[in-house]
Amino acid sequence: MSLIVVGSVAYDGVTTPAGKVDRMLGGACTYISLAASYFTPVSIVGVVGEDFAQQDVDLLAGRGIGLEGLERVPGKTFFWAGVYSEDMNDRETLTTDLNVFATFNPKLPESYRKAPYLMLGNIQPALQRSVRAQMEKPAIVGGDTMNYWIGSYRDELLATIREWDFLLINDSEARQLSGERSLIEAANVIRSMGPRLLVIKRGEYGATLFYPGGHFSVPGYLLKKLVDPTGAGDCFAGGFAGFLASQGVADVASADTATLARAVVYGSVMGSFCCECFGVDRFRSLTRDDVENRFQEFRQFTNF
Amino acid sequence: MSLIVVGSVAYDGVTTPAGKVDRMLGGACTYISLAASYFTPVSIVGVVGEDFAQQDVDLLAGRGIGLEGLERVPGKTFFWAGVYSEDMNDRETLTTDLNVFATFNPKLPESYRKAPYLMLGNIQPALQRSVRAQMEKPAIVGGDTMNYWIGSYRDELLATIREWDFLLINDSEARQLSGERSLIEAANVIRSMGPRLLVIKRGEYGATLFYPGGHFSVPGYLLKKLVDPTGAGDCFAGGFAGFLASQGVADVASADTATLARAVVYGSVMGSFCCECFGVDRFRSLTRDDVENRFQEFRQFTNF
C-alpha cells in the first residue's frame, strides 16, 4: 500500500577513500523513496531548483515513484559536500548550501492525504509535524531525526515524535535523546516519549529494533568493498517502511514481531546495497531478485 | 573432552564508570578457564606468586578446574591496573607489574599432553608455540593475540598461528594483521596464514566467525548495565573453545557449521555475563541454566 516520503532532495559532493564525485543526486527523500520503491508504491514530497536534471527526474519516475509532490521552484537545489574519514565512520561537512530547501514548507497534494503510510526524512521537527497534520488518518507514521534537532529543538522534536509510530535514529542520537548510556534503558525512555517502535541504526554493526515486550538485533552485512556510506541510513529507513507498507500492516500495535523483524532485515539489505556505489548508483541496476537474494544471505549468516 | 588453557593469572585494579576495585582476581587464563568450565573439563597452565590467595585457588578448584599446571613461585603475582573511558570502549593502563609472569615459561604437566583441546591465551607468541609443541596430538588448537605481538613480533606470531586451527582477535587487530580494511578481505588473508577458523570479536557489537566457505555473525547482547568489560574477550574465547570441546569436535575441517555457529553464540553468552560484574564476580553465582537461558535469549532476539 502507498507510502508517502517527505524530505530533502539534493545534490551531493562526496569524497571517500574509494574516490570522489563532485555532484550527484542525493538527499534523504531520494534515498528513502528509491529503497522503498522495491517494496511498495511510493510518492514523494520535496523541493528542487531549476538546476534539477531531467535524468534525475527520470531515475525516480523509472522506479515508479510518484512525483506530484516534488515542487520545482526558482533557484538552486540543496547542495551538500563532505569528506569521509579513512574508516568511513565519520565525515566532515565542507559545504551546505540550503538554496531552495531553506524555505521548504512541505504541502501534501490532495491525492496523498488518504495514504496509509508516512515516512518523514530528517528535516526540522515542526515541518515533520505539519506534514503529519495534513494526513487524514495514516495507519503508520514514522521518521528520522538527528543530533542537531535533538540538541537545539528538543521541545519541538518531542511534540513531533509523540505522534509517531516509529522512530529511526543511530545509537549516539538515542543516547543523546534519552540521556541513557545503555541502549535498553535508552529505548525505554524514548518509547515512553511516544513511538511504539524504535529502530537504532548502528552503521556497519547492524541495527536493533525495540518493540513492546522485546527487541530484535541484526548484525551488519559485511561488504567486500565499502564505496560510499552516504544515504545508507535513509535506504535502511526506506527498506523498513517500504516493507511494512507492502505487508499492509494496519497498525504497529497489531503487527507481529516476525514482520517487524523482517522489516529490519530488509532495511539492512537496502542500506548495504547503498554503500556499494557512490550515491544512488546501485539503484540503477538493482533488481527485486537481488534484494531477495541478499535477504536470504542474511538468514544464512545469522542462523544458528 | 578435556581443554587445556594457558595464559596469565593475575590481579587487576580496575576503574570503570560503574566503580573501582583496587585488587581482584584476573588474567586471561583465569577468565578463559572459568568460562570454559561451564562446558567441559578444563585444566590450566599459569604462574602465580606467593601472594596468590587461597580463596582464588578455591574459586577455580570449585569450578572443577585442574590446577596441576598452576605453578607457584617466589615473588608476586602479575598485577595490572587500568581505567576505562566513559563508554568503556577504551582503556588506559596505569600499572603493569609483570612480577613472576616476566619469566613465565609454560611447562605442561605430563597428564595434560594427551588432551585433545588447547586454548592459548594472549602471551608471547614463541611461548604459545612452545606449548603447542608439548602437546602430543591435539584435535584442535587455537588462541588469542594482541596488537603488540602483531606489530613487534610478527614473524614469531606468523610461525605460531600457522599451527593453529582457530584464531580469535578483535576487528582492529584483524585489520592490523592482514593490512586489509574490509573484514571479508582481512579474513581471507588471515585464514591463508594458517587458521582455518577466524573469530573476529567486536565488543558490544557482537562477533563474526569466518570458516571455509562462509561466515556467521551474531549481534552483541544488550546489557542493562555494563559494569566492567575486563575479561569479556577471554570469556568469549572460553565459551567458544569450551563448547567445541564439549561437542567432541574431532577437527575443525569436519565440524559442521551449526556447531561452529553455536560455539560463537556460547562465546557471546559468556562474554556478556562477564561484563555484568567486576572481574570474575559473575562466575561466583552463574549456573549452567543461566547460560542456557541466555543462549535461548540470543535465539529469540536474532531469529526472523
Task: Please give the order of strands in the largest beta sheet of chain A.
Answer: 5-4-1-8-9-10-11-12-13
- State the total count of DSSP E strands of chain A: 13
Computed Rg of chain A: 18 Å
Mean pLDDT of chain A: 97
Terminal Cα span of chain A: 34 Å
Spell the H/E element sequence of chain A. Answer: EEEHEHEEEEHEHHEHHEEEHHH
The stretches of 5 or more residues of chain A where confidence is low (pLDDT under 50) are: none
How many helix segments of chain A?
10
The computed structural class of chain A is alpha/beta
Give the CA-based shape of chain A. globular
Helix content of chain A: 25-40%
Written overview of the protein:
2 copies of one chain form a homodimer. Chain A has helices at residues 28-36, 54-62, 125-134, 147-152, 154-161, 171-178, 183-191, 232-246, 257-274, 288-302; strands at 3-6, 10-16, 19-26, 42-48, 66-72, 78-84, 91-97, 117-120, 140-144, 166-170, 197-201, 207-211, 214-218. Chain A is of the alpha/beta class and 304 residues long. Chain A has a 9-stranded mixed beta sheet, sandwiched between helices. In chain A, strand 12 (207-211) and strand 13 form a beta hairpin. In chain A, helix 1 (28-36) crosses helix 8 (232-246). The first copy, chain A, is globular and about 50 Å long. The model of chain A has no long low-confidence stretch (mean pLDDT 97). Chain A binds chain B through residues 17, 86-87, 181-185, 202, 205-206, 208, 214-220, 222-226, 258, 261-262, 264-265, 299-304, and chain B through 17, 86-87, 181-185, 202, 205-206, 208, 214-220, 222-226, 258, 261-262, 264-265, 298-304.
